[in-house]
Amino acid sequence: MITNIILTTVIGLCGGALLGSTRSCEGGGCPLTATPLRGAIYGGVMGLLLGLSMYGQNPTNNTNTNADKRRVTMSENIKILDNESYESTIAEGVTLVDFWAPWCGPCQMQIPILDEVAAKIGDKATVAKVNVDDNQQIAVSAGVQSIPTLIVFKDGKVVQSFVGVQQAETLVGAIESALK
Predict the structure, then answer these.
(1) Are the C-beta atoms of residues 87 and 138 closer than 8 Å to each other?
(2) Which of 14, 25, 30, 104 is catalytic?
(3) Are 134 and 121 in contact (CB under 8 A)?
(4) 104 is catalytic
């Protein structure tokens, strides 16, 4: 961290001094780099600011990578869909599909609600989720433009769709309506 700050400051100092040594600004058009000393001071300050802005950012310790996304805890009653299972799952019967992403706060709020819906519905319908980061083509084909988007399918056809966090009663009602 300190090394990064020092390194960016030194690079800024050198770059600013080099810019000031060209003497292309002696007429006063760019007073910050008119001389090598002014250029070095300006470059050093910019390098220091850049180094400080990177303070605490460690790209090798990024916790929001595809390999280590936020853990999502769901009941076993919710089916996780991907490119291979999506079409066959929605093709028959009634299926509620939640289009979501791990970084989406409202999507995280929807998880316990879906658990409740899955418990209330039981075996009458399927409750499923599609991670739009991992399955972009599914989201595009379903017309998903924002998340969370929840779509109720009956025999592969869209019956009803919702955008944003939905309450369990609303989703259970939509599923029961589709079951009729």
Answers:
(1) no
(2) 104
(3) no
(4) yes
The string of DSSP letters for 45-96 reads HHHHHHHHHTTT--GGG-SSSGGGPPP----TTEEEE-TTTHHHHHHSSEEE
pTM, rounded to two decimals? 0.60
Please give the Cα distance from 98 to 161 (Å, whole number): 10
DSSP state letter for 167: -
Question: In a structure prediction context, what are the per-residue pLDDT tens digits for the chain, which is 180 residues long?
Answer: 677 778 777 776 777 677 667 666 656 566 666 677 777 787 777 777 777 776 544 444 344 444 334 445 567 889 999 999 999 999 999 999 999 999 999 999 999 999 999 999 999 999 999 999 999 999 999 999 999 999 999 999 999 999 999 999 999 999 999 999
Identify whether 14 is a catalytic site residue: no
Question: Phi and psi (nearest 5°) for 156?
Answer: 85, -5
> What is the Cα–Cα distance from 180 to 101, expressed in whole angstroms?
31
User: At the topology level of CATH, where does 66-179 sit?
Assistant: Glutaredoxin (3.40.30)
* CB contact at 8 A, 33 and 39: yes
- Check if the beta carbon of residue 102 is closer than 8 Å to that of residue 66: no
Domain ranges of the chain: 2-61, 66-179
From the list 179, 72, 166, the residue with the least C-alpha distance to 116 is 166
- Identify which of 179, 178, 104, 111 has the alpha carbon closest to the alpha carbon of residue 144: 104
